[in-house]
């Protein structure tokens, strides 16, 4: 039946070329589109984590819901010792966050002021690489202030200017100081750059009375795919009555939900295209079968069973699908691989979609063998299903009736 199917493919060239072309296009589009969509989501997530996160954060249980100094982590050093024993953790750092009023001349801005371990932050986040003017914080930076570009613009300050700060210390007492701007950063995240400023913890702890305290501990995992298993290990060693350890899936829930919704609409759009391709292939198959009804009738008359006729149709579509996939997959795979290494750059995209978490003009693809394989499988399944109706149409005729069909 395989040879017979091959002869039919060569004989009915018009139908064969059309089926091949449609399958080739749908395979190419499916693989490239899914790769682009998955790559964009991965890039959005990784860029957001790189700005100011590591994948896991440890909080006092009521800190995120209620906030306030009563819900700070009180014994950071003991937790640090426990985290050192977990293999999946690459790095961790404690942060002390507070909100205060920054002022310069006639301008003021309410900002998130954060005490950080500056050396660890160079590996944990993109704060240092986001520097656009001045210099990054050092461990001995004393009262130096590392300020977001949006905050600097509102205050109209530049490197070297002195900014006054008023806020509340960790014991709810009054805290005030004069900071000197050492550097200005711009991560590309509009909200973050417009609200955050940073100070070395060694100095900030003295001002805020926050020694061995933290708003939370940020943990960077070696492999982001292992974040759930690493988080499970963290929960085993910390006091879960007082503390909670949350992964990026919870911390960035809004973004995760937005990506899921975007994926759903993306797959719906692609499914509509594939359905159109499916019906076009089926219609061409039906037309081809209709013109060959007498041929199938003769075959049935000489003893070819209905099952063998069905296998003949399956062989024909399988050969054409295989040829299209063999040609399309390497091309689509190369496109996905190339643009996963060399992302497409769309100037102004980050500025246009900054409210949706887009912080880069790059649009990378995701090259994943498993994804390519299931995309191919979907194309095969749709093509094979497309011969079912033509087969039942053939079967609706008796062999003698079909052999006399004109």
Query: What order do the SSEs take from the amino end to the carboxyl end, as H and E?
Result: HHEHEEHEEHEEHEHEHEHHHHEHEHHH
Q: Main sheet: which strands, in order across? A: 2-3-8-5-7-6
Straight-line N-to-C gap: 25 Å
Strand content: 15-25%
How many H/I helices? 16
Radius of gyration: 31 Å
The total count of strands amounts to: 12
Total count of domains:
2
Which regions are unreliable across 5 or more consecutive residues at pLDDT < 50? Answer: none
State the helicity in percent bands.
40-55%
**Mean pLDDT level:** 84
What is the subunit arrangement here? single chain
Shape annotation: elongated
Major sheet details? 6 strands, mixed, barrel
Please characterize this protein's 3D structure.
It is a single chain. The chain has 406 residues and is of the alpha+beta class. The protein has two domains: 2-49 and 255-403, no CATH class; 62-241, no CATH class. The chain is built from 16 helices and twelve strands. The chain has helices at residues 2-11, 13-52, 76-83, 118-124, 149-155, 190-193, 201-208, 227-237, 248-251, 253-291, 293-301, 306-341, 349-352, 369-385, 388-395, 399-403; strands at 55-60, 89-104, 107-116, 131-134, 144-148, 162-168, 174-185, 196-200, 216-221, 243-247, 344-345, 362-363. Strands 2-3-8-5-7-6 form a six-stranded mixed beta barrel, surrounded by four helices. Strands 11-12 form a two-stranded antiparallel sheet. A hairpin with a 5-residue loop joins β6 and β7. α1 crosses α12 (306-341) and α10 (253-291) packs parallel to α15. The protein starts with a helix and ends with a helix.
